[in-house]
UniProtKB/TrEMBL annotation, chain A:
<keyword id="KW-0571">Peptide transport</keyword>
<keyword id="KW-0813">Transport</keyword>
<dbReference type="GO" id="GO:0015833">
    <property type="term" value="P:peptide transport"/>
</dbReference>
<feature type="transmembrane region" description="Helical">
    <location>
        <begin position="24"/>
        <end position="46"/>
    </location>
</feature>
<keyword id="KW-0472">Membrane</keyword>
<dbReference type="InterPro" id="IPR000515">
    <property type="entry name" value="MetI-like"/>
</dbReference>
<dbReference type="GO" id="GO:0015031">
    <property type="term" value="P:protein transport"/>
</dbReference>
<dbReference type="Pfam" id="PF00528">
    <property type="entry name" value="BPD_transp_1"/>
</dbReference>
<feature type="transmembrane region" description="Helical">
    <location>
        <begin position="124"/>
        <end position="144"/>
    </location>
</feature>
TrEMBL record, chain B:
<feature type="transmembrane region" description="Helical">
    <location>
        <begin position="7"/>
        <end position="27"/>
    </location>
</feature>
<feature type="domain" description="ABC transmembrane type-1">
    <location>
        <begin position="96"/>
        <end position="327"/>
    </location>
</feature>
<feature type="transmembrane region" description="Helical">
    <location>
        <begin position="135"/>
        <end position="160"/>
    </location>
</feature>
<dbReference type="Pfam" id="PF19300">
    <property type="entry name" value="BPD_transp_1_N"/>
</dbReference>
<dbReference type="InterPro" id="IPR045621">
    <property type="entry name" value="BPD_transp_1_N"/>
</dbReference>
<keyword id="KW-0472">Membrane</keyword>
<protein>
    <submittedName>
        <fullName>Peptide ABC transporter permease</fullName>
    </submittedName>
</protein>
<keyword id="KW-1003">Cell membrane</keyword>
<keyword id="KW-0813">Transport</keyword>
């Protein structure tokens, strides 16, 4: 009890140390908090209805319309903020699915080895043999052009990364002393894998999740940029950039630039966070 | 010995190709509803759907369908595109040079910037140069390709007006060069038509830069990491102790060794680049296979999309194969088994 307490404290101390030593990570957490607030409360505090068209079309940014208005007179600021929830939901959904699928596949391949390993690893290699974005396009085209299918497609192309991390972590602990002790104490294989081995893979997985989130956001936005998944008039960053692209050569830059910047901000947040989390969980960084 | 290794590596590619074909086959069968309805087109009636079903062999068991699918692929029958009315394979072949010209040029540009950047960062780790490199690289990978493209168009076409309008491979004032390789730059140079060469180069600058920015990050990161490893190894210490010139140590010994892992990461970079290619082609109305696939997607032209996915996957397998072969050629220590 006391040692556990001390351990917790030292871990908290370590997190605090890393955060103090690395203000960039602290900034990344603050940025994440801001995005979450936008996603949860955004729709209730934006000044305009994101779907309501107005008579002021293609107005540059002003005090009333911070990010200007688009070709239908909709407020770009409101649309960008409201889109946060949808974009986050798509990428979180996709990452959660690939986390679960990757964990199960990785555990099976790493723990039982043999045929399981051969079949699962070759299957994942087959996915990795495709340029991933292209495979996602193919999956969405085959399953049908809906938001759910964009989530599934993004999940499929991300699964191999998780499965590989888990497989490696499980594999090196398969014969470890604590695993044998757990087995001797009468735990079933499934229980040993799920409760004793898998938790060890969680720290590297968390880093993977954070690095992957940025990529998932980019992927989802890229798919909707080429017209897959989310459909207009739903506010979504990829679509808004695609719509704004038509006006960029005539100089109405705010239509595409603000959603694009917001998208970039989100991806940048997750990338920074991933680097920071790696510093926290990577033992080599501990001093 | 070398030849045997190369053949062994070629044989290793076979299961990958089979895997790719299996997945594209699964995608073909996963069409929502009845594939026959889609392939027959919108105007089809009950009888022609039944006819399509029989021609496609959809009434037969799956393994049989798979064999037929493979036979058609090998024969070069990749189906017909609904929107262009042409065989998909012919469409792809005609548009592929445009995509390849763009992608390869972008990767060359990316390597030309990223490798010196990585070397610079590695020679003084922890300095402002290192931090600058890290920030640039993280920002580059956070920028969505399609957004970078649009920003570049706004700045360099609308504001500064120093590049031609971002539409296609050649401004309409130029005449297309005679097709020898399909690469406008090479064709222009071969026929001595420098006017066209310059025109094509101007059109290429923005899309190639866009893609290069996106692929900078992995190359620069890997160069930095492997350069750091190389610089801290014994042979460099020996070279330093022997009093060799700094330049000779850096470029002659460290970089040559550090480049090997960089070549391996190029495989992953290609995966990114081929995906980004689709988005960049859409932004710049580039008549390559990416924009072909996007148009086909919007028109629900499934044969064309599947042909595109398969073509991209095969291209990717081939590029990985070339990378591995190049790797073996530049590093005599490497055998393919390891």
């Amino acid at each position: 009890m006391t040692t556990e307490h001390a351990q917790n404290q030292s871990f908290a101390g370590h997190v605090g140390y890393v955060l103090r030593a690395n203000p960039v990570t602290m900034l990344a957490f603050a940025m994440l908090g801001f995005l979450i607030i936008c996603a949860i409360f955004g729709p209730s505090f934006v000044p305009f209805d994101p779907l309501a068209s107005g008579d002021q079309i293609l107005q540059p940014p002003s005090w009333a319309h911070w990010f200007g208005t688009d070709h239908l007179g909709r407020d770009v600021f409101s649309r960008v903020i409201v889109a946060t929830r949808l974009d986050m939901a798509i990428s979180i959904g996709a990452v959660a699915l690939s986390f679960v699928a990757g964990s199960i596949l990785g555990c099976a391949a790493g723990f039982w080895g043999g045929w399981w390993d051969a079949v699962i690893s070759r299957g994942l290699d087959m996915i990795m043999a495709f340029p991933l974005f292209v495979l996602a396009m193919g999956i969405v085209a085959a399953l049908g052009n809906t938001v759910e299918n964009v989530i599934y497609a993004t999940a499929v192309i991300n699964t191999p990364f998780y499965a590989r991390v888990v497989r490696a972590e499980v594999n090196i602990r398969r014969e470890a002393g604590f695993v044998q002790a757990a087995k001797l104490a009468g735990n079933s294989d499934l229980r040993v894998v799920a409760l004793h081995i898998f938790p060890n893979a969680l720290p590297p997985m968390m880093v993977q999740v954070s690095l992957n989130m940025g990529w998932a956001v980019l992927n989802a936005a890229g798919l909707s940029f080429i017209g897959l998944g989310v459909r207009p008039p739903t506010p979504e960053w990829g679509i808004m950039v695609a719509e704004g692209a038509n006006y960029i050569i005539s100089g109405e830059w705010w239509l595409a630039v603000f959603p694009g910047l917001w998208l970039m901000f989100a991806v940048f947040t997750f990338n920074l966070l991933g680097d920071g989390l790696r510093d926290i969980v990577d033992p080599r960084q501990r001093r | 010995m070398r030849a045997r290794l190369i053949i062994a590596r070629l044989i290793q590619a076979i299961p990958v190709v089979i895997g790719v074909v299996v997945i594209t086959f699964i995608l073909t069968r996963a069409l929502p509803g009845d594939p026959a309805v889609y392939f027959a087109g919108d105007a089809a009636d009950e009888a022609s759907i039944q006819q399509v079903r029989e021609t496609l062999g959809l009434d037969k068991p799956l393994p049989h369908q798979f064999l037929q699918y493979v036979r058609d692929l090998v024969r070069g029958d990749w189906g017909n595109s609904l929107s262009t009315g042409q065989p998909v394979l012919a469409d792809l072949a005609r548009r592929l040079p445009a995509s390849l010209e763009l992608t390869l040029l972008a990767l060359l540009l990316s390597c030309a910037i990223a490798i010196p950047l990585g070397v610079m960062a590695a020679t003084s780790p922890g300095s402002w140069k290192d931090h600058l490199c890290r920030v640039l690289v993280t920002a580059g990978v956070s920028l969505p390709t399609f957004f970078t493209g649009i920003l570049l168009v706004y700045v360099f076409y609308y504001l500064l007006d120093i590049v031609p309008s971002p539409l296609g491979r050649l401004d309409f004032i130029y005449i297309e060069p005679d097709s020898i390789t399909g690469f406008y730059l090479i064709d222009g140079a071969l026929t001595g038509d420098w006017e066209t060469f310059r025109g094509a180069a101007k059109q290429l600058v923005l899309p190639a830069t866009t893609m290069a920015i996106f692929t900078l990050a992995p190359i620069a990161r890997m160069t930095r990491a492997s350069m750091l490893t190389a610089l801290s190894s014994d042979f460099i210490r020996t070279a330093r102790a022997a009093g060799l010139a700094r330049r000779k140590i850096l470029m002659g010994y460290a970089l040559r060794n550090a480049l090997l892992p960089v070549v391996t990461t190029l495989g992953m970079v290609f995966s990114f680049a081929l995906g980004a290619n689709v988005l960049v082609e859409k932004v710049f109305a580039w008549p390559g296979i990416g924009s072909y696939a996007v148009d086909a997607l919007v028109a629900s032209d499934y044969a064309a999309v599947q042909g595109f996915v398969l073509a991209m996957a095969l291209l990717f397998v081939a590029l990985n194969l070339i990378i591995d072969l190049v790797y073996a050629l530049i590093d005599p220590r490497i055998g393919f088994d390891s």
